[in-house]
Specification:
Length: about 100
C-alpha cells in the first residue's frame, strides 16, 4: 500500500526545459525544483545524461526513475540515442534491459 506522499510523487508532473544543447527533465513543486535529470545534446541524434539530482524530500520515492522514464519516452519518440555518463542513469540502464534499446553504440 502506498503512503500519501508516495502516491503524490508517482503522479508529479515531469517538465522538460531546453536551452540550446543543454536541457533537463525535472519535477517542480510550488516553484521549487525537487528533482532534475540534466542532459547535453551531441548533435541532433545523441543525448548525454550528465547528472541526476533529487532533493531529500523525494529521495527513495522513485523520482530519479520517473525522470529517466520520461527521458526514455522522449528519446524513443524523437529517434535519439542516449549516452548515460551520470552514475545513477548508467546503473539503471545496466539493471533494466527493457530500456537499453535507446543506448548509443
Amino acid at each position: 500500500m502506498f503512503s500519501f506522499f508516495e502516491f503524490e510523487t508517482i503522479f508529479m508532473q515531469v517538465k522538460l526545459e531546453q536551452n540550446g544543447s543543454k536541457g533537463a527533465f525535472f519535477i517542480e513543486e510550488s516553484g521549487d525544483r525537487l528533482a532534475a535529470m540534466e542532459f547535453s545534446m551531441a548533435g541532433t541524434d545523441k543525448m548525454i545524461i550528465d547528472h541526476t539530482e533529487v532533493d531529500d524530500r523525494l529521495r527513495g520515492k522513485g523520482a530519479g526513475r520517473i525522470l529517466l522514464n520520461h527521458l526514455v519516452d522522449f528519446v524513443r519518440e524523437n529517434n535519439i540515442k542516449v549516452i548515460p555518463l551520470c552514475p545513477f542513469a548508467r546503473s539503471v540502464f545496466q539493471k533494466d534491459s527493457s530500456i537499453r534499446d535507446v543506448l548509443f553504440g
